[in-house]
Amino acid sequence: MLKGRELAAFRKQLLAWFCQFRRDLPWRRTRDPYCVWLSEIMLQQTRVAAVIPYYERFLKRFPNLHALAAAPEEEVLRLWSGLGYYSRARNLHKAAKEMVVEYGGEFPSRLKNVLALPGIGSYTAAAVLSIAFEQKHAVLDGNVARALARLGAIRGDLRESARWQKLQKSADAYLESKAPGDWNQAMMELGATLCSPKSPQCLLCPVAQFCEGRKLGIADLLPEKRKKRAAVEIHLVAAVFADGSGRTLLLPPPNKRNTEAAADDVPTLVSNLWHFPTIPTNANPIAKLREHLRGLHIQSRNGSFHFAPADKVRHAVTYREITVEPFRVSVKKLPRIKGAEQVPLSEITVLPVSNLTRKVARAALAVAPFVKKADSSTLRSSE
Ligand code: SF4
Predict the structure, then answer these.
(1) SS3 of 192-253
(2) What is the pTM of this model?
């Protein structure tokens, strides 16, 4: 662990580099805690380039906590649609409401109060409080942990509790207390740019002289790989209805969320958002789909549905590897189902939908609407 003069030089060099080379990101042009919070939540598990348009659109619609708290959840989810990990948006909305009720629409400045808000853990709390309020809390996320592990040549799984605590101690000890906001951003920037997961750019690094991992020639071997959870393959089949004017049918999110759902729970796989009629399948997807549509009381008016297969859709979420077989079902009139909505197939994002549902829509759009396929795909709903 660096101390004394070495630590002072380390801080000075890293801050000078950050000052000169920091990326110009929209959330760095403000110290408004609402904006800092929003950006930190959006950036979780998501690349900067993907976040920027969402961040700008979100702020335009919800410029402050009051606007966000007053909005219906469905609109918040719609603006989040495509960014993934939708519990972030739900918690953001809940937290905004809480802040309006508890703190008059101001972001609280006490750590205890911030940590009590939905969706805010120690990393996000430290980031907002240091950047917006210049409080002395050191951040520790995956990027910062990787840089610290290399600087201190720390081996092993960084997410193991004792090792994570050790890294937090290093982060706390290195924090520049005169500029905690800039310091935290400098550490994040180092981890996100030069000290990247593969091939760290040590020749350009402003703190290379302090790096034990580099001295030992093991920088690119750190952090050591975590044991991965075995992947689970999931097969689904989906019906994408389309009428003559290109409208389709989406089912609503479930009323209640299943917190202990099986790996192939459809509402969980579509992020508890609007989705096409979908069901897990095994050997006979069409028979399974037919059974599912019957269960939803979807009947063809003339006795049969024509199922046109679209290209399979593949999607990965954490340990799940999902394959969907979409079938486009062309109909004169869309079936009526309680709670379902009819929207243009080419614009399903008028409702909040997951990336998986978007991919299914794209695959179905590529299918010629009224081409007759083999008899095996034509099913009688009355069978
Ligand atoms: S010298 Fe290399 S490994 Fe060490 S902190 Fe800098 S970029 Fe990371």
Answers:
(1) HCCCCCCCCCHHHCCCHHHCHHHHCCCHHHCCCCCCCCCCEEEEEEEEEEECCCCEEEEECC
(2) 0.81
